[in-house]
Amino acid sequence: MDVSQGRKGQPMAGSISPAGETFTGNRALHLEEPLIFELDAQGRCGVDLDPAPAVQDRLGGLKRRAPVGLPGLSEPQVVRHFTRLSQKNYGIDSGMYPLGSCTMKHNPRLNEKLARAKGLGDLHPMQPDSTAQGALELIDTLAHWLKTITAMPAVAMSPAAGAHGELCGMMAIKAAIDVRGEKRGRVLVPESAHGTNPATAAACGFSVDSIPANARGRVDLDAFKAKLGDDVAAIMLTNPNTCGLFENDMIAIAEAIHDAGGYFYCDGANLNAIMGRVRPGDLGIDCMHINLHKTFSTPHGGGGPGAGPVVLSAALAPFAPLPYVVHDAAGYRLVEHDEGGDAQPFGRLKGYHGQMGMFIRSLAYMLSHGADGLRRASGDAVLSANYLLASLQDVMSASFPGPCMHEALFDDHFLKDTGVTTLDFAKAMIDEGFHPMTMYFPLVVHGALLMEPTESESKETLDQYIATLRALCARAKSGDIQTFKDAPRFTPRRRLDETAAARKPVLRWKAETEGTSAAQ
Q1: Which CATH superfamily is 378-503 part of?
Q2: In the predicted structure, residue 503 carries a pLDDT above the cut 60
Q3: Dihedral, CA of residue 239, residue 243, residue 245 and residue 250, to nearest 10
Q4: Where is the region Disordered (predicted)?
Q5: Which residues contact 336 (CB under 8 A, 6 or more apart)?
Q6: Could you tell me where the DSSP H helices lie in 94-186?
Q7: CATH architecture of the domain with residue range 110-365
Q8: Which residue has the higher pLDDT, 129 or 304?
Q9: With CB atoms counted within 10 Å of each terminal CB, which end of the chain scores lower, N or C?
Q10: Taken in order 416, 419, 425, 431, is the CA torsion positive or negative?
Q11: How far apart, in whole angstroms, are the C-alpha atoms of residue 468 and residue 486?
């Protein structure tokens, strides 16, 4: 349907109000909001600026010939516009985020207060080490606890996100193989892996060889062993895996890959399910990235921010990237250049040294919880997921038997012959006030619905979520297809043709395109 903005002051096509219900298109406090460019009035500005003095430009003929294209608005208009847009957002402070594989949990306000503390919130990355001793000590302390939690001897703190951490780990593996003078170009990746895993392996120049899953949703151990050879560099495995299941053959997999001369990379995106209970280093893992923004409460989504430190085994520790923090008699300092000795860093992964705001929040989370609190958090996350699984498996189709870890996975078999798809079901959830779960992932499950409630949600919230899904299941099976096809009905914009919009997106607003649809 048409989801474009209308003319100023007129009801909008596809607005939250049926045409003619209100003159403005508003629905009480649900206010219709045009694009900021449609509010533009030439010459209007939120501040008074003195005319710029005449100067001879040095732009070499590149002087702007047309207006910059920014809208002119008064200060109240700008504030109201962005406030109204923010009210249309769904966030973790608004309600439950059951996104599987994402771990969107509550971020304690204590963390935010500390991240804004004087002396931390106003640090500059180029100030001398001598003036940032507290910050460097904080990084070193966080690194210590990451190593303790994972039972790994070294950690690279600079990676900026999970996929960046994957890149760091695989580059360390590649550096270790190069030092050995071997030609190993193949990486084994389970078919249920996060999509970034094979992408990272390919980006490092490796070929990707997929490993099938067994009937229990875990890596098929025999199929894995059959693919081993002297050209295998590593296996990239997620544990708990993307189906929400613990890979119980971890030690056997580690022993087999090491006997073949390869390394064991573990995707640590799901550490929230096992922290304080399982130490990855005890499982034979050589390197693992940790999504601080998933496990230790830092808010993420919408493009950032994130942090992905990588813990390393003794075999890979020498190849950790620059820079890294050291502590000696002179205090804390950043090692910016290769100083020789046993260290053989593969280079610099990014500018400066990681995401300081994320480090502060994560350490605050760790210290406020303590070892017992972290253990309880992971236990509560698993308990919440299993509560969903047990409460829904009689009306929805669970993809694998038995208990799950941190997320419950369902497929679309329960919707068979109803005419309702996974997408329809998720859109109907929006009308009920819930953010949809992860849809159609992992790809190994048809029509997947992957739910991760985390430890942050109360039983009352989970019960309401369960009751809502059960009601939607009953409605789908009653034959009320149209309700699902029309959903969402109460959002600022209705459902659009997502395929056409993806193939023919309108990425830039132009005044002459008013009245066109997003799919044109």
Answers
A1: Aspartate Aminotransferase, domain 1 (3.90.1150.10)
A2: yes
A3: -40
A4: 1-21
A5: 322, 323
A6: 109-115, 133-150, 162-180
A7: 3-Layer(aba) Sandwich (3.40)
A8: 129
A9: N
A10: negative
A11: 18
| Residue located via tokens 């280093």 | 281
Distant-in-sequence, close-in-space partners of 360: CB < 8 Å, separation ≥ 6: 111, 114, 115, 117, 120, 138
pLDDT in tens, 426-446: 999 999 999 999 999 998 999
- Annotate 50-99 with three-state secondary structure: CCCCCCCCCCCCCCCCCCCCCCCCCHHHHHHHHHHHHHCCCCCCCCCCCE
DSSP 8-state code for residue 427: H
Extract the tokens encoding 263. 């390394």
Distance CA 449, CA 97 (A): 13
Strand order in the sheet with 438-439: 397-398, 408-411, 449-451, 438-439
The pLDDT value recorded for residue 302 is 57
pTM above 0.90, yes or no: no
Q: Can you give the residue ranges of every domain in the chain? A: 110-365, 378-503
CA distance linking residue 470 with residue 395, whole number of Å: 7
Residue 162, both tokens: 């999970």
Gap between the Cα atoms of 453 and 385, Å rounded: 6
Asked if 450 and 244 touch (Cβ cutoff 8 Å), the reply is yes
Nearby residues of 66 by Cβ (< 8 Å), 6 or more positions away? none
pLDDT in tens, 89-116: 888 888 999 999 889 899 899 998 999 9
Tokens of residue 416, six digits: 């068979």
